[in-house]
Amino acid sequence: MSTKRPDRRSARPAPARASARRGGGARLCLAVFAAVLLGLFVSFPSAEAAERRLPKDAREIRLSFAPLVKEVSPAVVNIYTRRVVEQVVGSSLFSDPFFKQFFGEGFGFGERRRVRKRQNSLGSGVVVGAAGLIVTNQHVIAGADEIIVALSDRREFEAKLVLDDERTDLAVLRIDTGNEDLPYLDLGDSDSLEVGDLVLAIGNPFNVGQTVTSGIVSATARTGVGITDFQSFIQTDAAINPGNSGGALVTMDGKIVGINTAIFSKSGGSHGIGFAIPVNMVRVVMESARQGLDHVMRPWLGAATQAVTAEIASTLELERPTGVLIRAVHPGGPADKAGLMVGDIVTAVDQRAVDDPDELEYRFGTRVVGGKLDLTVLRDGRELARTVSLRKAPEDPPRDDRELEGASPLAGATVANLSPALAEALGIDTLLTGVVVLDVAWRSPARRLKLRPGDRILRVNGTEVTDTKQLAGLVRSRQREWQLSVKRGRKVFNLVVQG
Predict the structure, then answer these.
(1) How far is CA 229 from CA 167, 169, 170, in A?
(2) Catalytic site includes residue 169
(3) pLDDT digits (tens, 9 = 90+) for 22-75
(4) How many CB atoms lie within 10 A of CB 166?
(5) Do 82 and 160 belong together in one domain?
(6) Mean pLDDT of 429-455
(7) Helix boundaries (H) for 300-353
(8) What's the mean pLDDT in 173-197?
(9) Which of these, 453, 454, 456, lies nearest to 464 by C-alpha position?
(10) In a domain, 34, yes or no
(11) Which of 169, 358, 455, 467 is flagged as catalytic?
């Protein structure tokens, strides 16, 4: 079906065409004058918008990415990791937990033995500094005993882990090339991406060698994917496969805008739904690495939030569900000092709209400590402006790590006082208080009780637990019966254990 417009002039009757010719000069002058006036009030597209256009003809369709690939591909590297794991071999009868319960780990009369097995894995990385600074995914190098980086010219170097961050699934490596500068990619601005922009994905899929695929940005600020704690992914249809993890997502100006991280797949191969970590998040991790920190320092809002559902929007008389609802505020925290209140709805951060808690957390996570953020807030139908100072979460109260002892069911658990800083490190609500389990010793009463790291101990024998010193005193004495309350996630377990 053609979309060509019909020739309206030929559809007019002859008298109408003759009449048009008689007044044509005057109307032509009026049309020119109107066009000039229109030009005064209608702004022309910006230079950035003008660069985004469709191909004009077949010649432009035949244009090649080859010059761009030659420029950026030397900065994308292959990463090989090795680790040694121990496996127990021997009779399955002797390793049965039923027999071990009575005869211990040594049961089996030497039939069971441990063997060391070497495991290899592969991924990709991106050189982001001439001195050998490399960014990749944390899951690519997790648990590795040895990390090898292979450059595009096939030279190999042993890499040192500078910083890894499980919450963002990012890691920073460094290789020593002497005084030689390496080709590297400049960081772009992932916030400037628009759906439909052309991108290239570069990596080492299935260890076949460096591979380049092209596609478009399918979506931005994609949340609910469940890959990392900070969710605001770039979605692309450029083919990403196993081995591409840690590789570069590159725009047409030769800058990196994302680290390829995961795919949605039912077969293990690419189905055209790939996800990349925005480079603005990478920038924060790199800054912490450059400062020599052993963890990523992030700003803390000091408030608990939730999504605005259709029901909440109706209750608050909003036209539609929008923004992020503040449901709790930490006294004296950044949100409190900025004047945020329970019931406020944050609709924008630095004039960028936010529609769910993940997006709000991402906006904070891509800023460095010491700056400020401007928030747009709805309160009682009025739009307000609030400025939040960006500071790190405090460790108040101090952790005071303790391993519990005595004859209680909690013996063998290492516990700490919850503070905003510790809660952030554990990836839980930073407004939680009390005592949290950090570790559980092997073959301990706490292990038999099935305690896990992250559990919060609420009460012991009816007494509310406030800090680790108090808890250590509560479990020191011997009891005939122990009544315990433990919270795991949103569930509370009330346990009765005989002493």
Answers:
(1) 5, 9, 12
(2) yes
(3) 444 444 444 444 444 444 444 444 455 556 677 778 777 677 899 999 999 999
(4) 14
(5) yes
(6) 93
(7) 310-315, 334-337
(8) 93
(9) 456
(10) no
(11) 169
Q: For residue 46, is it within any domain?
A: no
Residue 83 in contact with residue 144, Cβ under 8 Å? yes
> What tokens does 439 get?
């570790």
24 assigned to some structural domain: no
Domain housing 232: 190-290
Whether 307 and 385 share a structural domain: yes
Number of other CB atoms surrounding residue 68 within 10 Å: 18
Statement: residue 447 has pLDDT above 90: yes
Q: Verify that 196 and 148 share a domain, yes or no.
A: no
| Euclidean distance between CA atoms 279 and 2, whole angstroms | 43
Does residue 299 register a pLDDT over 80?
yes
Q: Report pLDDT for 14.
A: 39
Any catalytic annotation for residue 330?
Answer: no
d(CA 323, CA 377): 9
Enter the tokens of residue 66: 């080859």
Q: Could you tell me which of 28, 63, 87, 388 has the C-alpha nearest to residue 198?
A: 63
- Measured CA to CA, the distance from residue 338 to residue 388 in angstroms comes to 5
Q: How many domains does the chain have?
A: 4
**Which of 139, 190, 218, 356 is the catalytic position?**
139
DSSP assignment of 423-475 = HHHHTS-TT--SEEEEEE-TTSHHHHTT--TT-EEEEETTEEP--HHHHHHHT
Half-sphere exposure of 275 (CA within 13 A, CB side): 20
* 355 has catalytic annotation: no
**Active-site choice (124, 245, 288, 419):** 245
CA atoms within a 13 Å half-sphere pointing along the CA-CB vector of 166: 6
